[in-house]
Amino acid sequence: MDGNRKWVPGFEAVLLILLSHTAVALEVPLDPKVLEGLPQPPTITLQSPKDYIFDPRENIVIHCEAKGKPQPSFSWTRNGSHFDVEKDSKVLMKPGSGTLVIDISQEKAEAYEGTYQCTAHNEHGTAVSNNIIIRQSRSPLWSKERNEAIVVQMGVSLVLQCRPPAGLPPPVIFWMDNNFQRLPLDKRVSQALNGDLYFSNVLPEDTRSDYICYARFPHTQTIQQKQPISVTVLDSSPEGERRPGFMLPLGTTSTQMVLRGETLELECIADGLPTPDISWQKDGGELPSSRTSFHNFKKTLKISDVNEADGGAYRCTATNNLGTVHHIIKVTVNAAPFWVSAPRNLILAPNETGILTCRVSGEPKPQISWFVNGVPIENAPEDHSRKVDDDTVILSSVQSGSSAVYQCNASNAFGYLMANAFVSVLAEPPRVLTPPNRVYQVITNSPALLHCASFGSPIPTITWFKDSQISIKNSDPYVIHEDGTLEIHVAQPLNSGKYTCIATNNLGIKENHVFLEVKEPTRILKQPEYKVVQRGLSAVFECKVKHDPSLVPTMTWLKDKGELPDDERFEVDTDSLIIKDVTDEDEGTYTCIMNTTLDQDSASAMLTVVEATPTPAIVYEKPDSPADLELTDQTERTVQLTWTPGDEHNSPTQKFLIQYEDLLHEPGVWINLTEVAGTSTTAQLNLSPYVYYSFRVRALNNVGYSEPSQPSRQYRTNPAAPDENPSDVHGVGLEPGNLVISWTPLTGFQSNGPGLEYKVQWRQKDIEENWSSKNVANVSQFVVSGTPTYVPYEIKVQALNDYGSGPDPEVVIGYSGEDLPLSAPDSVRVMVHSSTLAEVHWEPVAFPSVRGKLQGYKVYYCRERGLQETEKETKQEEQVLSFSGNRSEGRLPGLQPYSVYSLFVKVLNSKGEGPPSPSKTFETPEGVPEQPSFLNVVNHGMDSLTLEWGPPTNNNGRLAGYTLKYQPVNYTSELGPVKVMTFLANETTITLGNLNASMLYKFYLSARTIKGPGPDITQEASTAMDTTVPSRQVDIATQGWFIGLMCAIALLILVLLIVCFIKRNKGGKYPVKEKEDAHQDPEIQPMKEDDGTFGEYSDTEDHKPLKGSRTPSNGTVRRDESDDSLVDYGEGGDGQFNEDGSFIGQYSGKKEKDTHEGNESSEAPSPVNAMNSFV
């Protein structure tokens, strides 16, 4: 199929066909259990983009994945012809898929450019991919050019052209100077979309010689540079002010075309003095504000996600104080084909009728072509049940064996769309996909949706029943949707119960049960109130809530719609918020939010903090005990308690706590019963039967609780039947053949009367109709024996006493004891994804054979041996990975490359593991090797080093060789240029020559396989030296000992100069002999390295001075000059004597430099040089 050619249109007239037996499109279920057993034509699940630009430094990977039953096979075409993958050694098709990996590391990448198309085929049909155009990314060099220097007068407009080379994809353009600093852009100077640099008017500061245009190519991450452009702005005859004019685009009108869905970019750049302002408007309409943006100082208008309504005339206006100019851009919006309704897969039963529709739109109108299994429909075998009508294919009375994959291709001048849709003819009995016994919970007066997802061919009919007997019709308050979902618009508590959905077709019937629970809404009964609190006092916000007792509530407090401050002054109670020691920062709006899993309610109140009123010092104490307790209005379950509050001691009572003592069941233990506000003196108390009550009251203020009041008189309630049943009822089998029913017993307080017993009831779920029961007392569990292995039981535990039974207990589902699984997973297969990762798939075991609660599966795997090893090595320790739940696959990470592994799978329940599956063997491909085992430098020469290394401990494949990189390291630890060498796998030593003497080198060695290089092993080593010098050279002038030595020498010379100066002033002579004797002082003689005396630091022995001699400042000795000549101490040969013969020339070294030292500028200074610098 050629996706780029023009498609021949079908019928021009659209036929309206009424089909009395047309089947509704049957959706393919996603449930893998359903899919596993269904034949299915191929479906393309992954493919590369239509336009694939590849990096020539990397392999080409063209994706093509498909699913189907049986698994599809794959083939490819290139440029319309069959592409034989097996004949090209550089092309690899991944196992189990059609994805191609093309190795271009040693090939010309251009050879693989072209148009590729993938085909996936099985016995039920053929699916094809898009045409995938493969192109190599390119970053060409700038054509050679010579830019003439530009000289302009101030105020004129100017354009600097960039004209970058055409790359693939196009480059990103920007302007910089020689220092790689971006040139500043503003309203006057801007960069156009084509990369050119525009000056609306030039200024003297625009003068520079380094206007450089750069092009960055994204795919290759390379940057190309244009030759610099020199601009000189003269102000000798500057241009005067002028009206605006358009530099881009030219003229008064222009046109532009944009495709639907793309971004429209319109650009107007104007010249003028002063610099004009740019504005935009659309003639006859408004700019779409949500999709419009302005850029480049409003010179560029962008409209994203263009649609047909964005076509029209756009006016850009340039304005300065001398006038206005307009330019109109007429925009035309075209559209590549886009889907209105893509064809969808059809599953039809025999003799049913189906319709495939391919609805597309575009501008110009796309042409539609149909294909069957990749063949044009007009060339396909004739099928009288098939009728093509432009964008519709009608399949009438399909028969078994007529499954196929249809392709719809829609194209116009701007692109094409291609979609696969299979038609599978199946006969399948109904299946209900919604999990059984699902519980739906909703809030009263909200809608409820009960699902009954089903699958079958023909499509099953869904009917609903409530409580297994009331047939539900499609009428108020119920609505049955086409997908079988039952909707109750306004759910009420009476709608709670058990619902049954039944799926039926001509091949069978299937039912499923779900449950609906309608809960009470959450409501805030007492909202927090507005508070005005003095600074330093406490603020209390109450928030009392009513909610469904079966839902767990969560109370959250917010301050100004954010979290409460992290401050211990804020205390959150069950139904209140207390803020202690209030500060000004605590002012704001406080909101309480009560959340349950189904709904929430909220309320807010404000807190205002005012200045505290100055008061004299007040003593605060705990309140006194309440007194005069009295019981009135006595009934079977209630009594009213009144009391008289004690003294509050300057701190208002916040609340009263009422406690009781049960003299019958727990004498001596006081239990909190309820709390009331600090302003109340009465409380209505709810009581339980068969309790001997005595009450007392405690008051609470900011200081604390008071002492308890004196107890009230005793009040006894009469016995009654239990009000509640035991909680935490569970049924768990501890071993095969039993069921242990356990519960939390009632307390004596909860028993409501004497003779407490428990009626334990059980029956096998969905099997037994009658309940078995047993009454027990003084125990918290009961064991049922002789049960089948791991079957569900319905369990009830009811409380009884001498006065009757408790309420009807809730039914709890428990399971009898588990046993080890009987069967092993089968159809174990392994997919190797990489050298270290494999994926194992298996067929889950049948549920009955699990014989317990399925915990998951365990995969045991072990490395048997390496593929390159000649002898079978000892097995490695077996490894285990667990996968929880009803899984059918798992991943094995961390594998060793190029190895043989074996594995087996076991199913796991709570009792233990089942038998193992048959062992499965698989191999991992090659990977990158480990680093070489060692790297040693064994021979240090003046200009050479010998390296030895060992092979990696694990090659992880066939060792292809080694790569050695090395580079010099100078004394500042800076790295020099890298040199690279490669070696064969059997080479483990090399001698490197032509190295620098006395230089430290760093080496990096890695092994490689066909998968690439492994990690480096590094080593450092130095070449040998003339003398013993550290490998990293040290600047001697920075050493402490040397600085101290220089100071001492300078001090001695200074003393010598002073003596000389005194002698000169006395008119005395300074004989040469005395000069020589003065310099014979060993304290100032140069030091030799071999005997500790001073000497010149020179590169050759020929330039060492005679011991005890004085050298010139450049460290050399002239053989034709006398050692005792005073010329040595003057400026060249200009030393002078006064009339009495004393030396009056400057005492300094010579300035001339010997020629052999011309390249030794980096050498450490000699002691004599340093000494001369002090004189």
Automatic annotation (TrEMBL):
Compositionally biased residues, Basic and acidic residues: 1071-1091, 1149-1159
Ranges annotated as biased composition (Polar residues): 706-717, 1161-1175
Molecular function as annotated in GO: cell-cell adhesion mediator activity
CDD domains, alphabetized: FN3
Membrane topology according to the record: Single-pass type I membrane protein
Keywords carried by this UniProt record: Cell adhesion, Cell membrane, Disulfide bond, Glycoprotein, Immunoglobulin domain, Membrane, Repeat, Signal, Transmembrane, Transmembrane helix
Gene Ontology CC annotation, any one: plasma membrane
Signal peptide: 1-25
Domain Fibronectin type-III as annotated: residue spans: 625-720, 722-819, 824-927, 931-1031
Gene Ontology biological process terms in this record: axon guidance; brain development
Main location: membrane
Keyword Zinc-finger: no
Source domain of life: Eukaryota
Listed InterPro entries: FN3_dom, FN3_sf, Ig-like_dom, Ig-like_dom_sf, Ig-like_fold, Ig_I-set, Ig_sub, Ig_sub2
Domain named Ig-like: residues: 42-129, 140-230, 244-332, 337-424, 430-517, 521-608
Subcellular location: Cell membrane
Chain segments annotated as transmembrane: 1041-1062
SUPFAM superfamilies tied to this protein: Fibronectin type III, Immunoglobulin
Pfam families xref list: Bravo_FIGEY (PF13882), fn3 (PF00041), I-set (PF07679), Ig_3 (PF13927)
Region feature (Disordered): 706-726, 1071-1175
Family: Belongs to the immunoglobulin superfamily. L1/neurofascin/NgCAM family.
UniProt protein name: Neuronal cell adhesion molecule a
